[in-house]
Each structure stands twice: as structure tokens, then as C-alpha cells.
Amino acid sequence: MKYDIRNIKFAKEGKKRIEWAERDMPVLNLIKERFKKEKPLRGKRVSACLHVTAETANLVRTMKEGGAEVLLCASNPLSTQDDVAASLAKDYGINVFAIHGEDKKSYYNHLKAALDFKPNVTMDDGADLLHLLHTEYKEVAKNIIGSMEETTTGVIRLKALENEGRLNVPIIAVNDAKTKNMFDNRYGTGQSTLDGIIRATDMLIAGKNIVVVGYGWCGRGFATRARGMGAKVIVTEVDHIKALEAAMDGFSVMPMREAAKIGDLFCTLTGDIHVIRKEHFRKMRDGAVVCNSGHFDVEIDIKGLKKIAKSVRKNVRNNVDEYMIGGKKSPQPPFNKGGKRVYVLAEGRLINLAAAEGHPASVMDMSFSTQSLATEYVVKNYKKLKNKVYDVPENIENWIAKLKLKSMNINIDKLTPEQRRYLKSWELGT
Questions:
Q1: If we measure between CA atoms, which residue out of 259, 255, 256, 196 comes closest to residue 226?
Q2: Strand ranges inside 41-85, DSSP E
Q3: Can you say whether the dihedral through the CA atoms of 170, 174, 178, 182 is positive or negative?
Q4: What distance in Å separates the CA atoms of residue 347 and residue 344, rounded to the nearest whole number?
Q5: pLDDT value of residue 181
Q6: 289 secondary structure, DSSP code
């Protein structure tokens, strides 16, 4: 076993955190127990590039119980929980390469360690690992029978590779599963993003003008929860259908150039680059807060902000940087007379993981159950798979939804024989 972590002595607290999350992941626990008996991943090496959290710890434990050798590295430099990484290495024998706050060089060295592991299966969160596989590690691809992608951003990147005819491994788009995006993206991101913002700023949400940049599943979830806490929510969009949906959901919809003038808090959830730019920062109010919950740190143009800022004060509060725009520098507060302050949270990285603990375990139970069964599916069916992006099989989704309902003590109706016949017939009508 190999690892590169902050401190192995953190393991005791990490194990507590892992076990606490496990209590709220009943479906994954059922899979883990079956994997322990059947060993469907026996003889396989799995390299996972994911957020190193307590919930992820229970996913990689499931992989190991299934018979796999497992290596875990971080998909984001600020999302690693160092105590969890320590416990995985010490208590569960997992190869871990992840340190909270690691620099770019360390981040990519850890990605390289994941591919030097010569995996048969990979798991990715944003496709950084697969990007490296398609550039510097092409020879490793011949040993890989399939890969799971966990995010919207990653699926976009991998579909682009497929469209160019350059994808060299089969992909299961776990992100596109209903048991993932309708719940993890909407309810998980919605709650955890607000959690991160409040922890970082101690902001009262009620009465604030909150600008939600992007109205996909993540944007929908965040907008709904912000409104539930009393915010006045504004949505910006580039997609006509999503903009129409936001309007009919009761939100104000406008271009960013207009929203920039009135927003108190801006949160990007698009998966795209530079959706908040220099021209928008110039229009913002004094004290505006900007953050990202859309995976990569490219959604906010931080470099552009630095160019127009007279000064930057790092960590005026934990996970908060202050950029001064306009005015004149002063040695005394407010340090920039006649100017305005824009606050960027978590350096533009994922606010829900950098400043909080990520999604609740209960919602990750579904995502990681889907991830586990998709991995088993790849191992059993890889000979039939081509180098394409595939959806998660419907029977997997239905099984997970059924078990999740059962764990919540919820029962549903069943079709009667008459109803089944009616739904299959074209002859019955008015």
C-alpha cells in the first residue's frame, strides 16, 4: 500500500467521520455486503479520482470489498478531508494520494500516481484523470476496460472526445443517471452550496438578491433552497428552455450584465468558463460576494478580476479573499477609499466542498450506489462495450430507487393487470 497524505495521525477522527456517513448510506451498504460475498471485482485494479470525503470513503471501501485493489486521488485540491484520507490509508488499506490545499504540481503528481497504478477501471469527477490518460498516458488505456464519470463537466469533455473520434475507453455517464443528477445535483448541491456560503461568510440569506448563474439541476436546487431561506433569486441563462423554466418557476430572469448591478451574492453552476468576467465585476455593488459550485475554478474569471483590482487581501476571513476595485489605496480601513470591495469565496473552487463538507451522505448513497453497480456492469460486460459514452442501464437505476424508498419506509402503488393491458394497447381509447 502507498499513500501521500497530510498526516496518518489524523486517522482516528477520519474513521469516526466515515462511520457516521456509513449510517446514512443504506443502499450502498447492501451493495457492499453483496460485493463482500460475491467478489465481482476480484483481480481488478480501480483508480478513482474523486472528492476525498467520508461518503467517497464508503464507495472505495465497497470497491475493495468487491475484490478490487483500489487507489484514490483527489479531483479537487480543496475538497480533501485530510482525516478521511488518513483513515482510508491506516484503517482500510486504501492507496490514497490527496492533501487538502495541495498545489497544482502535487495535484497532477497524484493523478499520475493513479495511472501509474495501471488500473483496469477508472472513476472520474471532472475528467482530469481521463484527460491525462488521453495525453500523457495513452499506453495505459489498453488495460482499461471502462471508466465512470461523475459530473456534468466531465461528461461534456468526454462526449467531445467521442465526437472527435478520440475516446479510447468506454465511459459510463454516471452523472446522467436520474438516481444521480435529479437528487445529488439538485438536492445535494442545493443544500451543501448554501451550507458552504454560510460557513464562509456568516451571511443572512433572507432578503438578499442572490444571482444563480445557470439553471441546470444544480442551479435549480440552489435557487429553490435560497428562495426557501427568504432570498430574492435572479437566474441568468444562455439556454432559452431553461430560462423559460426558471421564469415559470417564479424566478427573475435577466442577462448577467443587468444582474451584476443588483446582486448581493453570485453563485456559478454552469460547467462553463468565465461566466462572470471583468465587465461584470466592474458593475457589482460594494461588498458583492462571488462563489462557484460548478466544479472547476474557471467559471469565475479570477485572473481578469486581479487585473482590474487595485489590491487583493487574502483570507480576510477563512475562505474569503477581498478584491478592491477603483478608488485610492489607504493604510487604514476601508483600505480603498472611494472604491468597492468584491469578495471571492474559496478561490473560485467548489464552495460546498472547500468551505463545507459536500453533499449529505443520504443523497450520495444513491450516486455512489449507481457508481458501484455501474462498475460491476463494466466488469461483467466490457467485451460488449465500445469506446463510447453510455448511459447507466435502466434496471440499475430502478433497483437503486426501489431500495432507497424502502430505506425511507416509503411504499408506492403497483399497476393492476387491467392498467398494464391498457398501457400496452393501442385499441383501447375513449
A1: 196
A2: 45-50, 69-74
A3: negative
A4: 6
A5: 87
A6: E
Number of residues that this document lists for the chain: 430
Q: Taking a C-beta distance cutoff of 8 angstroms, is the pair 48, 71 a contact?
A: yes
User: Rounded distance, CA 100 to CA 106, Å?
Assistant: 11
CA distance 20 to 17: 5
Asked if the bond preceding 334 is cis, omega within 30° of 0, the reply is yes
Residue 156 phi, psi dihedral angles, 5° rounding: -60, -45
> What angle separates helix 189-201 from helix 217-228, to the nearest 10 degrees?
60
Pairing of strands 336-337, 340-345: unpaired
φ and ψ at residue 315, rounded to 5 degrees: 50, 50
**DSSP state letter for 42:** T
CA atoms of 107 and 349, how far apart (whole Å):
14
Percent of the chain at pLDDT above 70? 97
Partners of 96 in the beta sheet? 3, 72
Gyration radius (Cα) of the chain, Å: 23
**Residues β-bridged to residue 213:** 236, 268
**Block residue for cell numbers 432570498:** 231
| Per-residue cell: 211 | 444571482
Q: Is the model's pTM score more than 0.85?
A: yes
| Helices (H), ranges, 236-391 | 240-248, 256-262, 278-283, 302-308, 351-354, 361-381
Q: CA–CA separation, 61 vs 33, rounded Å?
A: 11
Region 215-234: what's the mean pLDDT? 97
3-class state of residue 202 by DSSP: coil
What does the alpha-carbon distance between residue 74 and residue 133 come to, in Å, rounded to a whole number? Answer: 16
